[in-house]
Design goal:
Strand 11 and strand 12 (about 285-290) form a beta hairpin. The chain has three helices and 20 strands. With about 400 residues, it is α+β, with helices and mostly antiparallel strands. It has helices spanning about 5-95, 110-120, 185-190; strands at about 135-150, 155, 165-170, 175-180, 195-200, 210-215, 215-225, 225-235, 240-245, 260-265, 270-275, 285-290, 295-305, 310-315, 320-325, 330-340, 350, 360-365, 370-375, 380-390. It has two domains: about 20-80; about 135-390, Lipocalin (Beta Barrel). Belongs to the OLFML3 family. This is OLFL3 protein.
Length: about 400
């Protein structure tokens, strides 16, 4: 076939090619149109969803705002109710604390001089033990943090002699209202003070050296430059007795607790008073206290220094002084003074308390439970003690 034949066939072949190209272009246009429709549909749906989401958000914000207003209204009502309840409790407390006039607590100078002379005469005499208790602290067996209640300084305790499970809380270093919880469970679970009964004392206390012993509260009252031990009956809310402490020119007993001048303590032997005077301002003094008459039976000068002392308690007739530093570290029993002389200071165990938040503002030993109730920067802590016989230390 010659070249002229090929030229004749070219127009015949061009017609199908143009038809195929036209079909391809139409197919592409249809696909693009379908894609544009889908994009437009997606855009419409997205716009609708955005509008619905915005409307839902505005609805939720409105509901939250309404809920916040209701919460504020309920909080205001709760605060108003709490104020009314507190007012009612104060009125009830006022009615409950109306009692006969307390015994006269005026200072009899002659009696005061006689008490001081008698106490000085018996100072540092040999002590005759009342019980066969021969235990001493070996270590801190366990520690339990109950809760955080009240201010940085305070006192909490049980009755050191009776079987009552009541918890007594003294919030602060100068107050006149004691909170009473029926059991440890209520004290642990409830943080509001309105869950506790209140005892309004006839005189405000000072420091954190108070004690609940055999149904009575022994607390410290400051009157001018002198200090009184007040014996208060917890059952009938009356002052049973009071006595001016027969020590001259008293100073804070613990270097790290400048608010405590007398620490009333209990052990297996009975009641004790821990104090300090300007006469021997470097060291701590100890006295045996008659729980019935509040008389001082005997007094001792101890070798335990006041500096860096934060608290003290008595176990089986032995004074244990707890020390710390002004930059709080681990508290430790670093000085032990046994009034009966059966435990030499160098033979006593060096007892460490686990490091917590600061220094203890109070430490009350319970002889019937063998544990210490401590107040550490507003936290209430129980230290369970491991005991040993003195001859085994």
């Amino acid at each position: 076939m010659g070249p002229w034949c090929c030229l004749l066939l070219l127009p015949l072949l061009a017609v199908p090619l143009r038809a195929q190209q036209q079909q391809f272009m139409e197919y592409v246009e249809r696909r693009l149109t379908l894609l544009e429709e889908r994009i437009s549909q997606w855009h419409d749906q997205s716009s609708r969803y955005s509008t619905e989401l915005r409307d839902f958000k505005n609805q939720v914000l409105g509901m939250l705002e309404a809920a916040e207003k209701e919460r504020e209204a309920m909080r205001a009502e709760a605060e108003s109710a709490a104020v009314r309840v507190d007012r009612l409790e104060r009125e009830v407390d006022y009615l409950e604390t109306q009692n006969p006039a307390p015994p006269c607590v005026e200072v009899d100078e002659t009696l005061m001089d006689k008490q001081v002379a008698t106490a000085k005469q018996r100072k540092n005499e040999k002590y005759t033990k009342l019980t066969d208790c021969s235990d001493t602290i070996a270590s801190v067996r366990a520690m339990k943090i109950l809760k955080r209640f009240g201010g940085t300084s305070g006192l909490w305790t049980k009755d050191a002699a009776g079987n009552s499970e009541k918890i007594y809380v003294f919030d602060g270093t100068a107050n006149d209202t004691v909170y009473v919880f029926p059991r440890m469970r209520e004290f642990t679970l409830f943080s509001a003070t309105r869950k506790a009964a209140r005892i309004k004392l006839p005189y405000p206390w000072v420091g954190t050296g108070h004690l609940v012993y055999d149904g009575h509260l022994y607390y410290i009252r400051q009157q001018g430059l002198s200090f009184q031990v007040i014996k208060f009956n917890l059952a009938n809310k009356t002052v049973v007795d009071s006595s001016v402490f027969p020590a001259e020119e008293q100073i804070p007993v613990f270097g790290l607790s400048p608010f405590t001048y007398i620490e009333v303590a209990a052990d297996e032997e009975g009641l004790w008073a821990i104090y300090a005077t300007k006469e021997d301002e470097k060291n701590i003094c100890l006295a045996k206290l008659d729980p019935g008459s509040l008389d001082i039976e005997q007094m001792w000068d101890t070798p335990c220094p006041r500096e860096n002392a934060e608290g003290a308690f008595v176990v089986c007739g032995a004074l244990h002084v707890v020390y710390n530093t002004r930059l709080p570290s681990r508290s430790r029993v670093q000085c032990v003074f046994d009034v009966s002389g059966t435990l030499a200071p160098e033979d006593a165990s060096l007892v460490y308390f686990p490091k917590r938040y600061g220094s203890h503002s109070s430490m009350k030993y319970s002889p019937r439970e063998r544990q210490v109730y401590a107040w550490d920067d507003g936290y209430q802590i129980i230290y369970r003690m491991e005991m040993k016989k003195k001859m085994e230390v």
